[in-house]
Amino acid sequence: MAHSWLRVIARSYWHSLIIACFIWGGVGTFIISMELVSVDFRMLLQDSLLALTLALGGSVISMSRSLRLMAGRWRYAVWLVAAGLIAAGVYELTEAFQTNLYVFPGVLAILLALGLLLLPRFTEGHSLEEDGFWFWVVLLLYLLSSIWWLYALNQPLEVDSILQNSVPGIILVGHFLIITLIYTCRDIVMDFYDVEREKDNALSRLYQSQQHYRSLFDHNPSAAFSLDVSGRFTGLNKAGEDYLQLDKSSALGMHYEYVLASSEVSKVNMIFSKALQGKPMHYETTIVRRSGEKRVLSVSNIPMVEDGQVVGVFGIAQDITAVKQTYNELEQANDELQNFAAVASHDLQEPLRKIVRFGELLKQADLPETEKDYLERMISASRRMQQLIHEILELARLGKESLQLQAIDLAEVMQSVMREHEAQLSSMGAVVNVRLEQKVMADAKLIKRVFDNLLTNAIKYSRKDKKLHIELYAQQFAADNLTVCFSDNGIGIDTQHQHTVFRPFKRLHSRSEIPGTGMGLAIVKKIVDLHHGDVVLSSQVGEGTTVKFTLPRSLN
Predict the structure, then answer these.
(1) What's the rounded Cα separation, in Å, for the pair 61 and 11?
(2) pTM assigned to the model
(3) Nearest to 451 by CA among 390, 391, 410
């Protein structure tokens, strides 16, 4: 807690002045109004009422922090008023000492002026309602001293004794200053008590925080460790001991390089230097246990900062050896499946090509109509099989090669697709409106395949009684991605089938009605997934279909 002597004095002075004015005004009003004085009383009724008014106003200021803050903001105006009161008080006292020793108005004006000078500093701390026991102690002292002052005030004037005649004024100022000093000492003691109490509370909170940190560190199921700026272990929990197969006493003071695989040292050194620059780091590395066994860890390094300076690095590590092994096994299995798919597609397509080739040759022979029909069906089925194998292989290959991300103009990609289908679109009288002005970060070849599949589907599932109408536009729902909408007025899809159309081989019509393999939308979804986007479909039977998919606008 910040300590300000001026703040303590300002607060004490105001509290003392308020109590004094209450007593002077209250007792003076009572004595004068009841005519309990026998000689010329050197205090008027309006003086006592003024003292009561000041006491009430001071109480409001003491209990209202907003008013005190306002006085702080308008301090120069407050000090100007105080200067005027000082001038008026000096004038009143000068006149009083030259004539009738009527000192109360002048003293009150100067005391109030001093209070106004201190008021801008009285912005926080105890109010009168928080004083408790001390309020009554000070009030009693004021009562006793005020009785003495009022007694002296009621004594007759001695024409030849200026000192004796000044006794009431001296008592008035003296007892006020003494009680103010007592109040100030009391406030200083209370402030130091508050400081010590706040210090004890802070130490208690610090101890609790240390206990919580120690509990989190020691009982963390992951390995937790701390390193100094040189890279030596300064802390290690039980899980960390198990990871390294070292007890804590052996590990403390050891450099982290001694537990790393030799191939990992340079990489981790670079990461550690970045952590010392204040950058949190996350990485994977390999350690060598005491038994010689290697384990793969996922590690997070967090800089430990004290007073703006990095004094070490805190780390959390998790053993992901089993996960990496499983991942490697899956990668190997996927590679094997990829190789199998390539070999299988080649081995399957070779006989099919021969079937189609020999079938075409047989068609040239003079065969009965029945045999020609059988032959045509065989060739058609073989070609469908070729197309199906080609699309299965394409779906399997998607994602195996890294995406060639670049800024592409979606409108240009769509125009390229439309040129390939220009003849068919013209013959149908189709209308295609493209309203794409944005660019996205994507693989141009794959996005072209998305547009090609969607346009092919729109052509295949168009209505016979209406001209095909296609709308391609974009919607911006987030700053980092773009939603592309492809809408047509085709035959539409029933609601119960809309969540299944992205599955491979999913067909909603027979081949005699609409040709195809059922792989088009499955390939669309796979390509969008590779771009970390989402694809959804909404449709109404007889009204058309809208496919919406998101694409990133930047490399992030």
Answers:
(1) 11
(2) 0.43
(3) 410
